[in-house]
Design a protein that fits this description.
This protein has 326 residues and is mainly alpha-helical. It contains 13 helices and 5 strands. The protein is 55% helix and 8% strand. Bound molecules: tryptophan (TRP). Tryptophan binds next to strand 1, helix 7 and strand 4.
Length: 326
């Protein structure tokens, strides 16, 4: 089985958009690949975080992923910072990365412009990400389009290292999901539903209460045409709700249009609100059971041991090849 690996940064909120656009995708892939999934907590530190909140969020994110259906039997699940060999590998990779190529990363250019006092780790961010990917010979890396360039950099770093020191790394490829539907902001359907959105009314959090979920959907922006028809250009608001329903119920868009033929927006919204809030409350029920369980610690300990061994072995191979060995 080929190995896939993805990381999620524990910042912002986990949203329905994340579930439909990416978590659902990972759930599908876990049957076909040897899957690794981790919380990239070290990556969160490139910007100052509230330590207490970060600590909580690391555990919350993992519990929520499992509650959504990421199966611990099919995935190696771990916390990045519990594997000290990853930053060690990252340093060795920094030595085969050019300053020019790191500083050309779009994310670095944008974020360093936003804050004059940006940290050095903002520049080395994609090299740490390369270490995440390369230590365990990941073949595919499912990421959003914004991270594609970082996976390509990892591939370039690996190629350079292999050329200089001999075959050491598998060359990874980004796996950009175009299958998962992009869910839009409920208030402004021209934007994607984003976990760092300033307007929380447009974003459904997987941690929202049933009442909040319902109210957000009932207040979603729509047009005034009052017919349930899918048209992302002319009717983005209602089409977004159709997408959400289609994705959660695994129904065809055409079938939804037929089912709600002649039904007005208020009634349709009520139905979507019902379906989504039921879905979320089921997930939350599982989440509550997992969050403080011993089982979750067992899963994380197992992931930690397994990936530490892999990363340690890769680290030793790298050191040997680079000549930093007794
Ligand atoms: N940088 C990614 C993001 O912001 C998270 C991440 C860290 C990651 N390491 C990774 C994703 C390795 C894929 C593979 O979303």
């Amino acid at each position: 089985m080929k190995r896939i690996l993805t990381g999620l940064k524990p910042t912002g909120d986990l949203t329905l958009g994340n579930y439909i656009g990416s978590i659902k995708q990972m759930i599908k892939l876990q049957d076909e690949y040897d899957s690794y999934i981790f919380v990239a907590d070290l990556h969160a530190l490139t910007i100052a975080q509230d330590p207490k909140l970060l600590k909580e969020r690391i555990r919350k994110f993992i519990a929520m992923y499992i509650a959504c259906g990421i199966d611990p039997k099919k995935n190696v699940i771990y916390i990045q910072s519990e594997n000290e060999f990853i930053p060690a590998i990252s340093y060795l990779l920094e030595c085969t990365t050019q300053y020019g190529e790191a500083s050309r990363m779009i994310q670095f250019k944008e974020k360093s412009k936003q804050n004059a006092n940006f940290s050095v780790s903002l520049l080395t961010y994609p090299i740490l990400m390369a270490a995440d990917i390369l230590y365990c010979d990941s073949v595919y890396v499912p990421v959003g389009i914004d991270q594609k360039q970082h996976v390509e950099l990892a591939r370039n770093i690996a190629t350079r290292f292999n050329n200089r020191y001999g075959e050491t790394f598998v060359l990874p490829e980004p796996l950009i999901s175009n299958v998962g539907t992009k869910i839009r902001d409920l208030k402004d359907p021209s934007k994607k539903m984003s976990k760092t959105e300033e307007n929380p009314q447009g974003v459904i959090s997987l941690f929202d209460s049933v009442d909040v979920v319902k109210s957000k959907i009932m207040k979603a922006t729509t047009d005034s045409d009052n017919t349930i028809k899918y048209d992302m250009e002319l009717k983005p608001g209602i089409s977004n709700l159709i997408n959400i329903l289609s994705s959660i119920e695994d129904k065809d868009i055409k079938d939804i249009e037929k089912e709600f033929n002649g039904v007005g927006y208020a009634e349709f919204k009520k139905h979507v609100a019902e379906v989504v809030s039921n879905f979320i409350s089921e997930i939350q029920e599982k989440y509550e059971k997992i969050l403080n369980s011993k089982e979750l610690d067992d899963i994380l300990n197992e992931g930690k041991e397994k990936t530490r061994k892999l990363a340690h072995d890769k680290y030793e191979i790298m050191k040997e090849k680079m000549g930093v060995i007794r």
